[in-house]
Amino acid sequence: MRFDTLIRNGTIVTATDTYAADLGINGDKISAIAAKLPAENCSRIIDAAGRYIMPGGIDVHTHLDMPFGGTTSADDFETGTIAAAFGGTTTLIDFAIQYKGQTLRHAFDAWMKKADGKAVADYAFHCIITDLGTAQLEEMGQLVHEGVSSFKLFMAYPGVFMLDDASIFRAMSQAAKHGGLICMHAENGGAIDVIVQRALAEGKRAPKYHALTRPTTAEAEATSRAIALAEMAGAPVYIVHLSCNEALEKVREARDRSLPVYAETCPQYLFLSLDNFDVPGFEGAKYVFTPPLREKWHQEKLWQGLARDTLQVVSTDHCPFCFKEQKELGIDDFTKIPNGGPGIEHRLSLIYTGGVHGKRFSVNRFVELVSTAPAKLFGLYPKKGTIAIGADADLVVFDPNEHQVISAKTHHMRVDYSMFEGIHTTGAPQIVFSRGRTVIENGKFVGRPGAGQFVRRQTYSGPPS
Ligand SMILES: [Zn+2]
Q1: Mean pLDDT throughout 154-181?
Q2: Which end of the chain is more exposed for a tag (fewer CB within 10 A), N or C?
């Protein structure tokens, strides 16, 4: 028995177990786990004493190299996957956007090109459908069978991304037939647009009005409607970036009725609030994303939702725009501020800090939220999302005691500010492996752009636990 890499003396953590063991890697797979493994002839030996060995993080909601509002998100598949890897995330599911009149195939091909030769870790795609004719409906099944087994639909942004209820219902029915999963941006876009126009007419143009014109009721109503449409279609539904207690209640009610309804939240809704708009001048634009920040009391409700499995996943909705020149496009009008914030790098450290260090849930639940449940829901498991013999060696050696302070001065995302500037975290990834290759070590990126591969995902196969 010999290994390309032997990780000794660590504590393996999965969604269900915590135990001391050695772990051997050969090629791109985990090949052995035992109390003691022989060190002879191993090419590389890592001593992980005092540290956790976790499955690599899976971020199922990112927007790399994405056109929006006349500009493009600042991280591409190279800088974005490098920043992700620094933060312990080794698989992303990004969004390929179908624009009006296009085939779904066109969207998939376009995003495959964006990632090709650039990604340093593995990636997959959801397909955003903005125009659903008969041809695209037919294409959904083909895409599922090529590994694009989830679709995102919008109930917001009328005239741009929004689909009507009939189209949503058709898409859900078709997804259910082929084993696809519908991801829903749940906000009532029609009502929001009227509120936005009223605000502009009253001369309310500052960044905070982006948040104040998107009420929690608009999110709760759309969440409830998405659940009802999915129930009628006999389909599962996954609510993306859930931000408030009112929407959380709708998901809880549905899950209490045993409906296959799932939801994610993101670190910004757990750590930031409307209070972040109390900054000088145009600085509030740093916090303009959708759904918007909410009153602070929602944060604890969302943490409870994560602890009690009302929410199954933490993703980032990473969609970075620089403050200079990009966010500034909306300096006189909040509706022109590109929507999105940078977060791909700090998901694990923030959720570990608030969840495990903050004693809201166990380290096993942490692994489940950031890796295992996303893998199971989105057809990546057991290749990814756990530590088991034969699984991809996507691994994080994680120091539960390392203290860091988040800052744009030290982060690796290609963006000139941090939403989490000055926040102290406890727990950080130290060594990160993508399919057996070291990508992060000693605070440095040591991987290779283009080494990341597209992952064909399996069909939706039921609840993650
Ligand atoms: Zn998004």
Answers
A1: 97
A2: C
